[in-house]
Amino acid sequence: MKKPRILLIYLVMAALLLIMTEAPGSAGSDNLGMLSLDQLLDVDVVSVAKVPEKIRNTPAAIQVITQEDLRRSGVNSIPEALRLVPGMHVCQIDANKWAISSRGFTSRFSNKMLVMIDGRTVYTPLFSGVFWDVQDMMLADIDRIEVIRGPGGSLWGTNAVNGIINIISKDSADTQGSLINMEGGSQNKNCVAGRYGGWLNDRTSYRVYGKYFDQDDFKPSNFGTSHEIAIPDKAADDYHNTRAGFRLDRNQDRNNKMTLQGDIYQGSSGTSGVHPHLLSPNLFVEVENEDVSGGNLMGRWQHIFSQNSDMMVQGYYDHTKREQEYLHETRDTLDFDFQHRFTILTHHELLWGLGYRYSKDDIKTYDLSHGFYNYRFAPDNQGNNLYTGFIQDRFHFAGDRGELTLGTKIEHNEYTGIEWQPSIRFLWKFNERNSFWAAVSRSVRTPSRLEHDGIINTKPIKQPFNPFGMPLVPRLITDGNLNSEKLLSYEVGYKSRPLDNLYIDFTVFYNRYRDLAAGFTSGTAFLETEASIPYLVIPTKIGNEFNAETFGIELSGSWSITDWWRLSTGLSWFGNNFLDENGYTDPRSEFQENSESKHQLSLVSYMDLPGQLELNCMFFCVDDLASINVDAYTRFDINLAWHANDTLTMILGGRNLFDPHHPEYDSISAGIYSSQIPRTVYAKVSWEF
Amino acid sequence: MHLRPHKIMALLAIFLCLATPLQAGSSRSLSAEIEAAFLVQFSKYISWPAHCFASPTAPVIIGILGRDPFGSKIDQISRSFNANGRGVEVRRLADPEHAKTCHILFVSASKPTTMESISRILAGRPIVLVSSTKDFLARGGMINFITLGTKIRFDINLTNCRHTGIKISSKLLKIAHRVTQ
Fold first, then answer.
1. How far is B124 from chain A (nearest CA, A)?
2. Domain around A657
3. Model pTM?
4. Overall domain count for chain A
5. Which is more confidently placed, A592 or B113?
């Protein structure tokens, strides 16, 4: 019986070979406009999804989530979509909060990641971070999400230290007609969204959309035990949001394009808030609702002077309001940007720009109990000016095989004055398929409003560390001299396309951080009698006390096995050391070192099946976060989509199927009682007409 | 039935072979993109009487009548295109009456009115009528996109170009799938 088996093995190998060689190697669709008439005749309407030229030839660790990824992965929010990026650490804290970062420093307010939607920054200066619960849109209207791991300060400015997330919506000419999406399921987001697009006249296209969703409570995590507080009965993290918006695109003539877009939203995000208390157990958990609302209006003008020169001017106004139980923030932002690109001396492409931003806030804080407070701001309203300028020269040499990019951003902010963020990037194309890149960059993070002007009472110190007969409260405060955190980053990468249908991206980085902000005890304790229970204050100053080094390897690959099956994978390893070069030994350094996931693995499969069916799977393995008691977990998502006809698609799916529930992040020390991420099943209908 | 690993492998192999000729999900939008690229290229291989242009550098105007299948892609392609010293401008139209200043008119599958009334309104004008709908050439059209296997091709009807002043280059006629004289 040996022979038939050998025959079978040959058959299998032959079949696989056939499939691998059959994948068509036609011209990619990203540059159809560059093809001649004869070349167009050879383009296949069925072509293997290719990695765009832009990604292959950018000297940075860039990854793109396409509209196809968004649709096929079955994700239902922007933060969840970021799980698809290899090397990105996405932790869901509760139903409406996430901790997202790349290359370390992950927390609810991952202060070293810059996030932008159509060129509008959504990074809040209050805490330095992103409120992910209100960063939403109709997912079908997103063109792509570009993610750069690593510093981008020389182009994007301060706070683009560990990465940049750019969410780019579709041109309204590409969202014509009606679309209705509905989703519902167990423990799940129930969502209904609609969009309509049309042409106002022969050059102006538009779309309008509306979206509503609500989501039930998750289950509370067990983290309370390690913080000596009772586990609450319910997570109270249900949330809902309603939003509407529009986009208008006008092709004035072939050299002028105008865009006007805007959104408004209103909703409520539930929270189990954890706050310090003067009486034992010194922390209390409370069910809270954060009322959130906001809106923005943006205009953009792109003008082409000639083939070698173009410019862009944009301006936006953004309003956000968030009313937490003890902290209300209203913020108005006005921003103008100008960019000009031109080519000189044939090999040099120069890009320069100017920017101005005015951000004004109004903060109200409320006492917790007994006249004791958590946060206060002095002053409680403030307007800040930010002036920026940047210049970058990209030049080609050795017959376009080599490329060197030199650039710097110069900013002036009101907290730390002038900041420089230079970078140098080198790209070498060995051939059409293989390229190597290296970069050295400096980036900075400027202090947040809280770090600069906040007064923070933290959890009172417990017995037996407290020998006094009254509560002992560490109080964080700055003297206004806090400097920015600085990063010097070294990266090398290799991008390869060994086969037409296989793409591999490999990056190694070493980051050195200086002047990381942290609190340290300074001065002697004093008695505070403002509250009805008197307490002793330990003055704790926020200073630039820490240095750190981080290093890691990121590997990703995508393989179009056939024109109906595509696999992609990501593998990352991360390490860090907090250095006490100033002579401090702080237990927090070890805590920090172990609060990051050291290893991550992702595997994504998209398959087209007979009968207009698609089967999509995603598998993630995330290492433990030892110092915050989060165990390693695996997550498996799957969905089956049926394209009933040209207009109707039905999807059945499940998320986190391997596990009834698991926590991904403990945020109690940051004031949030975390939830467990549940197993969910859902159904979705999409109707386009 | 007992399924041994090699049987599973064999089944998998057969399944893989069977499933290979399936169409990928995104083929519809890619066809439109290729058609958009062709449409812009046509402006280079067709000549119009001089009076159709306000000046020697005035752009070739491509109109899209009815629902636009191309989206922003055609705007991007046309922006950098050079048609023998002229640029290319794309306009979306809801009414064939407004198509009179166009040089090329793409008639979408979902158009505001019948093909008969479109050809009546535009009869005798130097406007190249293009479409990807069936039997377009029999109803007065000049260029018709067709899908042959996995490639986009086009047929040309020269009879309908007669007495309009439109000249289609030999290059375009050579690569056309069928030419009706």
1. 23
2. 3-285+294-308+328-688
3. 0.86
4. 1
5. B113
